[in-house]
Amino acid sequence: MASAIFTTFLCRQQRFLTLTRSPVATQLWTRLASTSVQQQTANKPVNLQQLKNLKVDYQDDIAVVQFNQENSKVNTLSKGMMDEFVPLFEQLQNDDKVKGIVVMSAKPGSFIAGADINMLESAKNRDELFKISRNGQDIMHQIEQSRKPIVAAIAGSCLGGGFEVALACHYRIAMNDKRTGFGVPEIKLGLLPGAGGTQRLVQKLSLPDALDLVLTGKEVKTKKAKSLGLVDAVVEPIGPGLQAAEEKNIDYLRSVAVQKAKELTFKKHVKPQPGLLENIKSKIMSTSYVQNYIFEQAKKKVMSQTQGLYPAPLKILDVIKQTVESGSKVGYNAEAEGFADLGATSESKALISLFHGRTECKKNKYGKPEREVKNIAVIGAGLMGAGVAHVSIDKGFNVILRDQTTKALSRGYSQITKGYQGYVKRKRLTNAEYDRILANLECQTTFDNLEKCDMVIEAVFEDLGLKQKVLAEIEQRIPEHCVFASNTSALPIHKIAANSKRPEKVIGMHYFSPVDKMELLEIVRAKQTSDDTVRSAVSVGLKQGKVVIVVGDGPGFYTTRLLMFAGAEVFRLLQEGASPKDIDKATKKFGFPVGSATLFDEVGIDVAAHIARDMQAVFGDRLADKSMPALFQDLVSNNLHGRKTGQGLYIYQAGVKGGDREVNPKFTELIKNYAAEAKEQITTETIQWRTGLRFLNEAARCLEEKIITSPTDGDIGAVFGLGFPPMKGGPFRFMDTYGVSKIVDLMNSYRSKYGERFAPTQLLVDMAKEDKKFYS
Amino acid sequence: MAFRCSFQKGLIHLRQSNTSSIRLVTTKTTASASSSTQKQSQPSGQQQQQQQRTSSPTTGTSSSNKTKSLKGLGRDVVFIDGVRTPFLTSFTSYKDLMGYHLARHALLGLIKRTKIDKSTPEYCVMGTVIQEVKTSNVAREALLSAGFPENIPGHTVTMACISSNVALASAANNIATGLNEAVIAGGVEYMSDVPIRYPRSMRKLMLSLNRAKSTPQRLGLITKMLSLKNFTPEAPAIAEFSTGEIMGQSADRLAAAFNVTRREQDEYAQRSHKLAQEAAEKGHLDDIVPMHIPGAEDVVSRDNGVRVSTLEQMSKLKPAFVKPHGTVTAASSSFITDGASASLITSVEKAKELGLKPKAYLRRYIFTSQDPKDQLLLGPTYATAKLLEQAGLTLNDIDVFEFHEAFAGQILANLKALNSDYFAQKYLNRSSKVGEIPLEKFNVWGGSLSLGHPFGATGVRLVTTAANRLIKENKRLALVAACAAGGQGHAMLVERYQ
Question: Could you say which residues are annotated as the site Important for hydroxyacyl-coenzyme A dehydrogenase activity (chain A) (predicted)?
């Protein structure tokens, strides 16, 4: 499978770094701070009738404050929200009739999803960022210090600043539904939770638990939050009754919270005493020896996962360490300082840019298709085919998985069930949900019911002839409106459609392996593909949970093309005498999750050989001279197919991992026949720049040739499909940050040494002249 | 066909004797229907057809031709009488018996009460929920142990708390279709002993041990068994399989969804116990057949779960399922019960031949199902609404209501659902609410909350009580309804025999 490019290794790092799956997730609380507390107290009393973002009412002596941001599906700690909240809070504090306060959301599915990133982006300098954090800390402090009990009744996402608000309250009641989750995803934007989040989490949790939450930014569900001690009580959602379930649930949560608030007005909440074991555990944890050990281990893990390229996790460790060692006064200050430092880093800016890009690629920019796709057939039950079925069966599609043999089907079926059983094990799904989801899958060797399909996705072996044959066979059986999508990493879609009866219905859908983990879907639109076909493919992709980019039908589309251009330089370096280990080390140091030499073993050298031959024929010396396809062919004929055969650039043996793998002596022998002269000493830097510049230049060229339609698509494709270092934001963001003219200069200097393949593309030259940026 | 005519005659008769008007089902044969009702009748006719595919009611009132089957669908079915053992809280006087003992006693009691010969019934169907694996077909074991002739077949059915309703329905079908003339329908539940299993890993090893051929093989398997995990027993799951939720939790959530307060639940539970006690004192509960237990001092002749408490006592109880803010407590839930019931169902002709006076006709019935998570216990609402619509009746036409009381909160939620326009429009596919059930007609001799609820036996108790109440109160039409695990429901119309 040509698309089997990306290993679980890559995924693992991606999971650590990429943005959370929830669409509303990563919004920071930063808006909150723009209103200073002092400023507000001077204001006139709030007119409760004119609140736009809050609702207040009273039940006996309890005030219920509901966040209800106007014109929005979710609540954020926006300026408007805080401008109302701060004085209202003040007023409730001074109102003798109010004995307790409940804070909750009037919107189903969103307590407070964080705050507005745009606000943070508009902070002009480090001082402003520092102030933002300080003010946030102050507001949370006021909530915490309130003499009247404050109960947070939480349903829906409670993230970032929202979580910090909840943590500052005296008692937390949470709805146990799928939408409710707690987390501090700031790290995913290269930041830290700066409104006391690091401080309160360390207070409430054991050190390893706190570090885990803050360093991964993961979201925990209600049950888990309860067992961690982050929430005090759990409310199960109720069904419809005399009203619809959603309204009913808000009422129910409210009544439980009001009852609790009343109770707290005369009885202070006492945390249940920890048991003996817990006591011993926390005693041990609080010794400085153990704490130091934990910090050391955490740092080691961070370094091994990030190569030290991300400042945020290191800064967070530092802040928490200071807190633990010197107390919370130092801690709060360190948090605000850390927040300001991080907010000013290019890494944070790059990650925020990626967040925006990802959000954009999760929206359907192309509109609704005429006919909603309901029934999908996947042809070929290999790794990719089964993967495509995997991501479809739980999204409301009826899926037929078809292969020629029952054995192949059984393998595919087991792949899917294994994946879903994993979700059950991790409690992401119940057994009943598992059963129901698997009921949407039909495995068959026949073409039965293809006449009912709205879309066929073929994932057979990467061979043009075979794909054409499959298309011809399928087209006889599918209805007129049915879309035929080909999962290919490089075969031209117009060629696959060459003999099609309805070429306008043929499109490319390039999934990345493993499909259930890799978020990117590259949709390839050929000239003859109709708009409606694109709409169908995009809407299916988005439903499958993918980040979607639509690219043109050029050789290697977008991602594979970049991969091959950088890869050509990798092989050139190998020909010049560099070791695969040097290449891997240098590229990983740049931030790629998988070394660029290892990557070809993962992709499969045989697959790469095909693509190299085809692309060299099109691009000629601009890609590489003729020795490259020849070298690939030679490797293949010597049975060095990469990881799948145990032999490639490296030797693969069970139990030998990563850096311990040995370079394959057969490869070292073979490459000698293709040796090329090294024009200068090969250093880490030359490896990084030579491969990097080829990558960047080709990305720009794809934009120039309209293979991709925007720098955003280009960045998202490179980061989510190829593992381009996320903290650099993608090739286009990187060029902007580094300076296009500097890139052009570098290219020209390499061009003088290495020839025309380093010639900067016209777009870059023009942009350098006009001092333009990709992102304005 | 014959059945339909007689049913309609019955309804016409009802109309004459009862001032409240009864809307007849608008069938093709009902020519008097006005044009406006004809319009309305069309969709309801379709629904009936759909209904028949899923639940096959015994009556032939539907306009669908499918019911005019050659097998003779549509004979009148009569309920001769029903009996039961006293319903006892589990782990009390029945604790050393087995389930089939109770079923056997109910069968013997039925023979004694109806004075028929043991060879008269042609078939027996019984409901049960938690099966004793040794007597998995408990109907047959009960027949044999009660000394019935060997040529009477029996089968056991299960549908959670409406298992014996299914038994009654099967028996009624057999009569209506002419398959049988006299059938026993009953049910039994015995919770004082339940199958507790080894965990799956251990069972697997034990089963392979059976098939191991050599000693080393056996020894290998035995050593694998030596893990604590393998010896941790598995009790029968009390949670709903599809949702993993315990029924009490679901009931609590249901009560919250319908704004049923703790106070209302406590009051309802108290009412149930008070009425049960009254009924017992007045001798209304004469379906009980006293039972002698080997070694016991005295005969068991009364249900032992009836306990009238003050509201104050009840209000002190902590929530049993949803803590700390729940509203369902032990006092407002039905308790774990042992007991069995049995009834004799025959054709009219057979009853005449035997010289028996039936207590009632078993009329149209229905089984429904809905969301097992959020509406787990709303079966009575769905079933009542649909059944009344199919029969062309309203709540006003019903004189006696006998509903299964799983939880006070569940009953009150169902009453509120039936009386809600929102719920009717959103979930029952009706233009307006079904209506308010007058409590003075509702479970006036107590219910499952007080009398006890042996899962597999309650259905027959409900129908027996309904029939007895019709006679005692001199009324005509009763509605029986019940909820069941799995999000299912049942309702049946019982008409007094005259």
Answer: 510
